[in-house]
Specification:
Protein name: CobQ/CobB/MinD/ParA nucleotide binding domain-containing protein
CATH class: Alpha Beta
Number of domains: 1
Largest sheet: 8 strands, parallel
Number of helices: 8
Bound molecules: adenosine-5'-triphosphate, magnesium ion
InterPro entries: CobQ/CobB/MinD/ParA_Nub-bd_dom, DNA_Partitioning_ATPase, P-loop_NTPase
Keywords: Plasmid
Number of strands: 8
Oligomer: single chain
Structural class: alpha/beta
Helix content: 40-55%
Organism: Pacificitalea manganoxidans
Length: 213
């Protein structure tokens, strides 16, 4: 299976979501790999180096790919390939999405964040990606419940699917990332639980995966 992380804007939380998901599915026993499709920046690759240095488990495979096509070909060898895309992926993003079982579009609560993502999602739909495969996820979220509700209403009006759990922006997650951890591996049970809920909600959207009890 293939999951793509796509965004128009940079820094919305694609790579954070990629590592969270990779760690949680690896814990569930899946063979998983993150395809780092921003080789110049190499965020996921650098995180993997820190993770190896800290000898954290489970081990997560990460590799840089210069082309989307190569990453897609490699996906056959894994239970799940996570395509961690660059910002402004445009054509590459289209190919990623067309080949994915699930497309995740991280966004913040602001109109400035949501609008370009909605436009990007419409473009993917126009390119033949089924709308029921595209899910928005509030990432790096900081805001009140009222702001969360308003943002959900806005996305709902634009006919976008939104994952129920939000991925909060927290200092402990930032610190965890610096140590090669995913958000579900920080030393605070409440933060862990929030992160795991996000990963679980994503896994539940994959075809053939049963809803968690
Ligand atoms: N939930 C979070 N809590 C705290 N910090 C976070 C969280 N998610 C992401 N970050 C931090 O925010 C920054 C941007 O996140 P990330 O690299 O995941 O975004 P991105 O969409 O992959 O960016 P790019 O478009 O540059 O690839 C990073 O410094 C990351 O460590
Ligand atoms: Mg990234």
């Amino acid at each position: 299976m293939i999951i793509s992380l796509i965004s128009q804007k940079g820094g919305v939380g694609k790579s954070a979501l990629a590592r969270l998901l990779a760690v949680e599915v690896a814990r569930a026993g899946w063979a998983v790999k993150i395809a780092d499709l921003d080789p110049a920046q190499g965020t996921s690759t650098k995180w993997k180096a820190r993770r190896d240095q800290a000898e954290l488990h489970p081990e997560v495979a990460v590799e840089k790919y210069r082309t989307v096509d190569r990453a897609i070909k490699e996906a056959e060898r894994f239970d799940l390939m996570i395509l961690d895309g660059p910002a402004h992926a445009e054509q590459g993003g289209r190919v990623m999405a067309q080949n994915s079982d699930l497309v995740l579009m991280p966004t913040g609560y602001s109109l400035d964040d949501m609008e370009p993502q909605i436009e990007a999602a419409y473009e993917l739909e126009d390119a033949g990606v089924p709308s029921d495969r595209i899910f928005f996820c509030f990432c790096r979220a900081k805001g009140s419940d009222a702001e969360d509700r308003a943002a959900r209403t806005y996305l709902g009006k634009a006919r976008m699917n939104v994952l129920e759990p939000t991925f909060p922006e927290l200092a402990s997650i930032r610190q965890g990332h610096a140590e090669g951890r995913a958000a579900s591996e920080v030393p605070f049970p409440k933060v862990q639980a929030k992160a795991i809920a996000v990963a679980q909600a994503i896994m539940n959207r994959l075809p053939g995966v049963k809803e968690a009890a």
